[in-house]
Amino acid sequence: MIRFVLVETSHPGNIGAAARAMKTMGFSELVLVAPVHFPHPDAVARATGADDVVAGARVFGSLDEALAGCELVLGASARQRSIAWPAHTPRDAATLAAGEFRNRQVAVVFGRERTGLDNSELERCHALVTIPANPDFSSLNIAAAVQVIAYELRVALLEPALDAPEPDARLVTADELDHLYTHFERVMLDTGFLDPERPRHLMRRLRRLFNRAHLDENELNILRGFLSSVERPTGPKHRG
What we know:
Layout: E1 2-7, H1 12-24, E2 29-33, H2 41-47, H3 51-55, E3 58-60, H4 63-66, E4 72-76, E5 87-88, H5 90-98, E6 106-110, H6 119-122, E7 127-129, H7 142-158, H8 174-191, H9 202-213, H10 217-231
Parallel strand pairs: 1-2, 1-6, 2-3, 4-6, 4-7, 5-7
């Protein structure tokens, strides 16, 4: 249920090394977003026994496609951004994934070797995962970062699952949230609440709010229904 997503990886050897790190910890679902060179012999060579993980890797043209169906998305990042995003250590993130999200589809997203994930990609993540490395030399090789997070996930998943009440409705997926954000943006533009000339990070803050809330299907339907009613008002008007 854990999907490891590598975004625009430049060096095919890093794909193979990441696959090896995953298989060592018992994971096999590797997803690549627009890799620069793949398939490539270097990916197989660096996999060292994890050839099956490399061979089974799925390749997509966009991060949105890669995250389809995921109910928890964690973005690996070495630094916090100007607008603070919920952040976890690898251990805390693994505890979250092995608890409430144990039987759900979880994705961990890793960015480019040189620049990591950009802000628009991080906006698609419910939270960041930051490895508490040496602050003077905090950027890990991508395969090393995969290994650290995969290890913590394995340790957390080996713990007995705690009995938890079944939710009233399933949690919404990343692609469903993207549709919600598009709907919000359209309504806010139509009503004048959002000024396209001066957006002031409004959509980014809205994404942070709902990513943190972990909406379920019923809550999503309420919000989508409300937005539709704003677009097409038919009911009585109540004045205060």
